[in-house]
Design a protein that fits this description.
The protein is of the alpha+beta class. It has two helices and twelve strands; from the N terminus they run βββαββββββαβββ. The strands form two sheets. Strands 1, 2, 3, 5, 6, 8, 9, 10, 11 and 12 form a ten-stranded antiparallel β-sheet that branches. Strands 4-7 form a two-stranded antiparallel ribbon. The longest helix is centred in the last third of the chain and has 18 residues. It is globular.
Length: about 200
């Protein structure tokens, strides 16, 4: 898990302050679903080849990189309004999967091996404060959005932290999966994370 400290704990969520980290990112194409690594061109498989899971790492200088948990998925930005409607199907076109590179070895993008696959991008993730809700069972887009809706409702009722929103009203959120696809659904650990700001009136 990326380095963090817990700033606040509520009954159904907690607020964490994460240290900066480096991400290796790959976007989903049409017809690919979250949590489905069976497609050879899926983001998971492309990222796995970048770090050298299946042999020689597809990076320069071919360094094998330890895989860390969680795997992050950043959904395509959409305005969040009330109520939040959850669509079935779970196709992920426009979403992005990321592996968090080990912070002990790669503290900056410049330190990380350069991808040889043009679909893989590296990004520096700054220090951030996020509200986090955990959930089990399948790591699917519809399940993540259901739990996002619950987390946003919990944040509003609690009042101590508020989601960060863009001028267009978009919420900065991410889904995190901690387990391999073959792990039994009821044993899986997943999370939704929302970037937040402390409410000065509640401090």
């Amino acid at each position: 898990m990326p380095s963090h400290v817990v700033l606040y704990k509520a009954a159904a969520f907690e607020v964490r302050k994460y240290a900066p980290s480096v991400l290796a990112m790959c976007s989903y194409g049409d017809g690919v679903k979250w949590g489905d690594p069976s497609n050879d061109s899926s983001p998971f498989m492309q990222l796995a080849r970048y770090i050298g899971v299946f042999g020689q790492a597809q990076n320069s200088p071919s360094d094998k990189i330890p895989m860390t948990a969680p795997v992050l998925i950043a959904p395509e930005a959409i305005p969040m309004t009330a109520p939040v409607l959850v669509a079935g199907g779970g196709e992920a076109a426009g979403d992005t999967m990321s592996f968090v590179l080990p912070a002990s070895k790669y503290s900056k993008v410049e330190d990380a091996p350069v991808p040889t696959n043009p679909n893989i991008k590296l990004q520096q993730l700054p220090e951030r404060v996020q509200a986090v809700r955990a959930f089990t069972w399948s790591f699917r887009a519809d399940r993540a959005r259901e739990n996002l809706a619950i987390l946003l409702d919990d944040l509003e009722r609690d009042g101590r932290y508020a989601p960060q929103r863009t001028a267009a009203g978009e919420v900065d959120w991410t889904a995190a999966g901690y387990n391999a696809p073959f792990v039994l659904p009821f044993m899986k650990r997943n999370e939704v994370m929302v970037s937040v700001l402390e409410n000065p009136k509640a401090a």
